[in-house]
Amino acid sequence: MASGVKVADDVIAVFNDMKVRKAQPSEEDKKRRKKAVLFCMSADLKNIVLDEGKEILVTDLVNITDPFGHFIGMLPPKDCRYALYDANFETKETKKEDLVFIFWAPEDAPLKSKMIYASSKDAIKKKFQGIKHEWQVNGLEDLKDQKTLAEKLGGSAVVTLEGKPV
Question: Full-prediction pTM beyond 0.70?
Fold first, then answer.
């Protein structure tokens, strides 16, 4: 079910910046690098845009002890969003960084919002080529804690998430 919604260019640019990690990033690249970002529908419901001010920069992490918990706190309790979360984790074999695409559709969101976001999800997913992990979340109970995210990333193979044991 396509909605005809378009994905704004700056949304695609943010995804590409998060997806591609430069071997020798400049200081400016380091300052702009995002750990997490939220996307929402534009006021006219025709475009998927950046949710202004709803991001965690990698440089913010010096002041944030629980990046995933902070990210959860950014989600609106009564409306839908799309999100990208850059998860750092370690399995029994290796260290990894993977982007997680999250479709946030809380039970308390208006039905119209849920319908628009659900029917527009394919538009944003098509622009986000190479996403390995997708997660539909319908409430805070689905997010519980970082163990839930660890299960999505690789189940029992994940031993640390964001530098902390799971």
Answer: yes
Average pLDDT over the chain, rounded to an integer: 90
Please report the pLDDT score of residue 1 as a whole number.
46
Positions of E strands within 5-137: 6-7, 34-41, 47-57, 81-91, 95-104, 133-137
CA separation for the pair 71, 24 (Å, rounded): 27
Phi-psi region of 22 (alpha: psi -120 to 50; beta: other; left: phi over 0): beta
Please name which of 32, 34, 46 lies closest in space to residue 4, comparing C-alpha atoms: 46
Both structure tokens of 84: 């990208």
Cβ-count burial 47-71 (b if 16+ within 10 Å, e if not):
bbbbbeebbbebeeeeeeeebbebb
